[in-house]
Amino acid sequence: MTMPASLPADIEAIIFDCDGTLADTFGAHFRAFRDILADYQVAFDAEFYHARLGLSRYQLLEDLKQTQGKPFDEQAVAERNTAAFLKHLSAIRPIPYTHDILRSQYGRLKLAVASGGQRPIVEATLKAIGVRDMLDCLVTIEDTGVGKPAPDLYLLAAEQIKVDPRFVLAYEDSDEGMEAAERAGMRVIDIRPFYRTDPARW
Fold first, then answer.
1. Which domain holds residue 72?
2. For the chain, what is the total number of helices (H) and then of strands (E)?
3. Which residues form a coiled coil (predicted)?
């Protein structure tokens, strides 16, 4: 789906995914994993990570273990991830395509984020790109316990901003996210034709 010339007239709210949709967090996440895994003498390169962006944290680490054949504690790596990520906030960049949409609709429509990420990371990310205070609500995995492609994150966000899902437009960068928004009864726009991160930078 491509970006419409203008928003549908009946849209009352926009709900954005965070990572890869509002913010390019590839560099921060990559550096965090790289730093932690170095303690286990496990190599972690940008191309490997980029090819597996749709995986959960634990799926990614399991795949890495299978690929390299080196033992490490996935649980320990996951538990250290938030603190490591927060050391690399300077690597986060706003994604121009969605950043411009959010700013243009601030004060006009209800604006929210529905992310499958951990709240401390999502909060820090949104503050890093200067949009946290522009949102009417933020829903993360801690609020539902269920990630995408289940519709729970989007449904809860719509409930909190008091807008019927039929009148919500969602922006996503993954197949799982698009499915989640569609299952919630929302219209959704795939931003991938308009923005892709460049792993070569890292």
1. 26-90
2. 9, 7
3. none
